[in-house]
Amino acid sequence: MFTGIVQKIGLIENIEKKVDSIDFHIRTPMAHDLSIGQSVAHNGICLTLTNLKNNIYTITAVEETIQKTTIKKWKIRDFVNLEKSLVYGDPMDGHIVQGHVDCTAVCTNILKKEAGYYFTFKYPQQFKDLIYQKGSIAINGVSLTISKIIDSNNELEVAIIPHTYENTTFKYIKTNSLVNIEFDPMAKQIKRQINLLKL
Fold first, then answer.
1. For the segment 134-150, what is each residue's pLDDT rounded down to a tens digit?
2. Which of 9, 25, 51, 71 has the largest count of CB atoms under 10 Å?
3. Domain that holds residue 35
């Protein structure tokens, strides 16, 4: 479990494609504080460390993760948001994030204002009922609040303050960039209960 508060940015040093999985070798100054078998969120994807040496560690993505997330688009020299899993007593500064990506979304607009940036993303229609005004959402593992909903286009907007922009991979997102989306777990549970009542 995570909170969506990015702790460091990692750099993809190497990629090894296998028959039904992909190994990523990530460099980060946070590596000295990690261990093999530990869960770390990478752009919102919960992945387990399988190897660790100096400032570089290895993670493995299997077929389901490859198909459902942006990981299939990752390239050498790309940057990824990193967050270690919660430890009892850690502050809950963001919201509950499971590290289980629901879908990907496309950035359709970036608007710079004095107070920060406004990013608009287009998401698949089947997730429309998980979006609500001022609701929580994790985009590339960053805990954010939905500032605007554009139902006619299946789009949502989030505001990014300068600190978040500079300390996450949001500064590398451009129009047409693909991002990972995890919707609010509470909204997903409410939707499930409503669907069960309809049966």
1. 999 999 999 999 999 99
2. 71
3. 8-84
